[in-house]
Amino acid sequence: MLKKWLFIIIGGVSFLLGTVGIFVPLLPTVPFYLLTAYLWLNSSDRLYRYFTQSHYYQTYIQKMLIEKKASKKSLFKMLAMVFIVLLIPFILIHSLHVRIILVIVFLAHIVVGFYYFRKKKI
């Protein structure tokens, strides 16, 4: 019984952090939503059904991770957030090696992002 309530509470905190992560670039959304789904699956069928039918789950987990579908707008938004996050150390750290690595990481995000979400032609 205590485990069930602990999972419900931690799942709620995880859901809240994931939702805040939609608006705050440094806070990840998907890992918190996956944790929420796991915790609520193991604690409450009602909460799990509510969460998996929510707009947030459908947008950030179902469409992007499971169906591998993303609009150009959401891809651009995702890459813009990655760019902002990588730009901060690029500006603050005055090392050529670090800057080269950051540029490579950003380019890898672009290539992998478009490869991952590429529409398959039938």
List keywords for this structure.
122 residues; 79% helix; mainly alpha; single chain
What would you say this structure looks like, in words?
There is one protein chain. This protein is mostly helical. It has 2 domains: 2-66, no CATH class; 72-116. 79% of the residues lie in helices and 0% in strands. The longest helix has 22 residues, at 2-23. The protein starts with a helix and ends in a 6-residue tail after the last helix. The mean pLDDT is 84.
Report a brief summary of the structure.
The chain contains 6 helices and no strands. The radius of gyration is 17 Å and the shape is elongated.
Please tell me the overall pLDDT: 84
Q: What is the quaternary state of this protein?
A: single chain
Overall SS class: mainly alpha
Please, how many helices? Answer: 6
* Domains, number: 2
List the helices and strands and how they pair.
Layout (H helix, E strand, L loop, with lengths): L1 H22 L6 H12 L3 H8 L2 H12 L5 H21 L3 H21 L6
Helix pairs in contact: 1-2, 2-3, 5-6
